Amino acid sequence: xxxxxxxxxxxxxxxxxxxxxxxxxxxxxxxxxxxxxxxxxxxxxxxxxxxxxxxxxxxxxxxxxxxxxxxxxxxxxxxxxxxxxxxxxxxxxxxxxxxxxxxxxxxxxxxxxxxxxxxxxxxxxxxxxxxxxxxxxxxxxxxxxxxxxxxxxxxxxxxxxxxxxxxxxxxxxxxxxxxxxxxxxxxxxxxxxxxxxxxxxxxxxxxxxxxxxxxxxxxxxxxxxxxxxxxxxxxxxxxxxxxxxxxxxxxxxxxxxxxxxxxxxxxxxxxxxxxxxxxxxxxx
Length: 284
Known about the structure:
The protein has helices spanning about 30-50, 75-90, 100-105, 120-135, 155-160, 190-195, 230-240, 270-284, and strands at about 5, 10-15, 20-25, 50-55, 90-95, 110-115, 140, 170-175, 175, 185, 200-205, 210, 225, 245-250, 265. The chain is an alpha/beta fold.
């Protein structure tokens, strides 16, 4: 059985639960955009009866170029996220990059996310696990583009050891490096990770990236295949994923980070309705 709960929000992910939705912005741009996106997605998930966590990064440390937009930073970003939580009444998710960010982030967010390239950083995983467990939250770890699904067992065990055996980890599939500037998703890997006794999500947005291959910037940013996001999400849910991770923007082509992979916000309800239906078929 793989079932985890965010008790303070009365929501859960895993066996027997509705499709878990982690969705929002790739990166915080301004408070007004974050509030609008959070309210829109929360309204959709409320109508569909889906548990929802709003995601937005305060910093994107892994950028193709030093000139790429990274976000408002920790202090300003936490203020924006806290405003979203207070005004929209929604749980939050964000990325962590450094050990000393763990405790301040855990005071505000409910789902602390380890980026894929950092999933093997033992000290970061342990510090994040301890901090988020202490505040009643969960750990969302993206499986690295370089890891086999079964090798994620070491991530789970590190987090578990850090919190005296408590189960707090959700694993996230986001594709594996395939040659140059490309990623592929092995849908059988979702079942392999679920065998580790944890819920599994699909990051359909980052799974369609073309790392370092955005023709608009001559390789100074990551490209993507926006049309493939829904395809990956549908396939993963059909393969047994417990949740989806999706990034939206009211004007995707104007998004300041990973625009080629970002979905239009006005298409969120149609996609989530379809994913809900698929998940119910698989669950039944």
